[in-house]
Amino acid sequence: MTKDWAIRLFGLLIVLGTIIFVPLPSFGFVLPKLLFYSAAGLAGLLIISFAEKPESLAPLYKTQTGKLFLSFFAIVLISPLWSKAPLLSFVGSSPRFEGLMAYFVFFAIALSAFAFARRKRNQSYLIKAIVLSNAFVILYGSLQVLGIDPFIPAWDNEVFLGRTFSTLGQPNFLGLFILLTLPFAFQRMQESKDRPRAILSSLCLLNLLVLATTASRSALIGFLIVFAIVVVRSENWKKQIKASNRILLNLTSIALFLILISAVLEFSERFSSPTQHIGLGSRAVIWDASADMFIHRPVGYGLDSMALFSPQFIDKEIFEYEPLETVVDRAHSKPFDLFITLGILGFLAYYTLLTKHLHSLWKRREEPIVITSFLSLLGASICLLFSFDTAVTHVFFWMIMGLSLGATLPTRKTKKPRLECSIYLGSAFLVLISVIAFSQWNGARFRSFQSIRLFNDGYLNDYLKPGQRAVYLFPFDRSILISNAQNMISEQSWLSASANANFDDIERRGQLQDSVRSTLKLHSFLTSNNDGIGDLLSAWNESLRFLDFESKVVDDLIHEALYKNPMHVPTLRTGALIYNSIGMHEHSVSMINKVIEVLPDFFYDDKSERRRILLKENKWLLELL
Q: So what's the architecture of 477-624 in CATH?
């Protein structure tokens, strides 16, 4: 039997992982959370493994829904075998960090929640963790709504047009998180009395306010469908309203009216911007490209690898809606994301599990925890048809999945308790890998931040050491490798252009050349040589060689980069600059012409507000006019 303190520790780590973030550009909102979530998964599995009587796994491998649950994670586990970039799919890539190591964590949390929820007493602790996480996220979101966010200097508020993002870092993610957790706060409110009921009622209203200020259309659709189900199911809701305190009812009505006004204003502000579109916008372009990617490779490309391959399929129409630097790393639709990452097998396993489990929950909808889990998973799944997950929403989705499986699957006896205990410990070992890796990765990100800051401040003698230390701590971060290579190449460019070059400068350039080659070799190994940025940086590095420079090598590398990123404007522009620097001016002009070909139509409209914004973000375009 599991001790109360042990389950509370698991819940505490979940709450801490949800609310923690580091307001630095190199960390963001995901990587620090994954460290706490991996610790929670490890703690949960160890608690279960060393309990006096570990919970049996028999309900998972002896029931249809349980088998589907295990099948999905089995497919995820072996997915690197068919990934086009296996190592990248194993570790994950910024800014999502959703490789196989992250799925170790999601599985551990789901399995822990399942085991804890087998005892009814423990279910309340899991629900408390969900509600408490919701409360902290909503309270910080409320500070943003009121304009008193203490971290506001750290955020670029223009990116989200004033929309609320709380500790999740993105308004759509916050909307999805609310859909997952609000039903549990609402259930707690219904079961409470007096002051706790008043507090939870206020929390539910704040949830609606914050949801409104996210201006997330996908979350709004999910909420409206869930709300309709709640209203239809509540047979006596009219009687409850009549029996309610009139003053309280009036105050609630006023609050709901103000929330509605906030939603209207927030959506109006969002879509009054010339960069926002009330229709599908960039989603239509991304979905077309996603369909082409799936047709081209039905088995999938591997976890967290879409950014490497989407440039070969994305149409130039994307720049009508998104910045010129855009690289699409998610399909903005859960079905398409599954098709691209795990292929047809992963798609079928996921949606068969989801459909079967929702059907099972609906059949037992009279039980409070069952209908609450149903509404949570259904609302989130509807939202995800037009959106995608982040680490936090993954964790809560699978935690609620595990909780509801534990609460509903029938009891099955096991004949091999030692084998099941070894399965728990084996899973704990996999999560331990994630704990160590995410610890190292966070340390590497901090060192990378130091390196970038020193380089930007002009400390050319000091930036290299923390950058190399970052690679030593965690040599599998694609963005750190690219950043280090870019900085070293930029220093070479500065030294080669210096009018007072001396022997020390030449020696330094040689050292930088070698460091860039070794960095890009590691980058190529990580991405299985599928990243055009690596080829482009290699071309740039080779163009700066001062003894045995070969223009054909540079030309071949640029062509390879363009094959992988045919419409990536930074690749085209950098290619033009490289060609110009080595005297291949015709090739440089060709690159510039390709840039002109992919520019959106509004670029040629002098009166367009979107053109003004585009020129403000890309001042170098003025050279083309």
A: Alpha Horseshoe (1.25)
